[in-house]
Amino acid sequence: MQRSVKYSSHARTQLLEIHTRITRDNPEAAVRVAKLVTDSVDGLLDFPMLGKAWLKVGTRKLVISKYPYSIIYKLTPEAVLVLAIDHHSLR
Fold first, then answer.
1. Which residues neighbour 33 within 8 Å (Cβ) at sequence distance 6 or greater?
2. From CA 27, how far away is CA 90, in angstroms rounded?
3. In this structure, what DSSP letter does residue 77 have?
4. In the chain, what is the greatest distance between 2 CA atoms, to the nearest angstrom?
5. Phi and psi for 71 in degrees, rounded to 5?
6. Is the pLDDT assigned to residue 73 strictly greater than 90?
7. Distance between alpha carbon 42 and the CA centroid of its chain, in Å?
8. Is the pLDDT of residue 90 over 70?
9. Least buried of 23, 52, 63, 84, by fewest C-beta within 10 Å?
10. What would the pLDDT profile of 23-55 be if each residue is shown by its tens digit?
């Protein structure tokens, strides 16, 4: 069975806030950052163990090295569930 990507409402809100915040200064950069985040999440479909084990049992953290963000996610048999998109200064 092929997994799909699902975003929690919290992660969707965070992605929108990131995009909105960056857009104030540089709309083109906002699009690039949001695209890299979503592309990184999509890449987890092919390489779900790419992130390292994280704080809560069953969660993983994928660091986006180009920008100061990390994707916190959980694997289920059906999906890569994105729980949060955190700025590095928050962790």
1. 18, 19, 22, 67, 69
2. 23
3. S
4. 42
5. -105, 125
6. yes
7. 9
8. no
9. 52
10. 999 999 999 999 999 999 999 999 999 999 998
For 27-71, give the secondary structure using H, E and C: HHHHHHHHHHHHHHHHHCCCCCCCCEECCCCCEEEEEECCCCEEE
- Can you give the CATH number for the domain in which 41 is found? 3.30.2310.20
Structure token pair of residue 71: 């994707």
- Structure tokens, 8: 């929690």
**Cα 39 from Cα 77, distance rounded (Å):** 21
Separation of alpha carbons 2 and 42, rounded Å: 12
Tokens representing residue 26 in the block: 């540089």
Tell me, what amino acid is at 37? V
Query: What domain range is 34 assigned to?
Result: 4-90
Reduced to 3 states (helix: H, G, I; strand: E, B; else coil), residue 45 is coil
Q: What is the pTM of this model?
A: 0.91
Task: Say whether 21 sits in a helix, a strand or coil.
Answer: helix
Distances (CA, A) of 18 to 14, 38, 77: 6, 12, 29
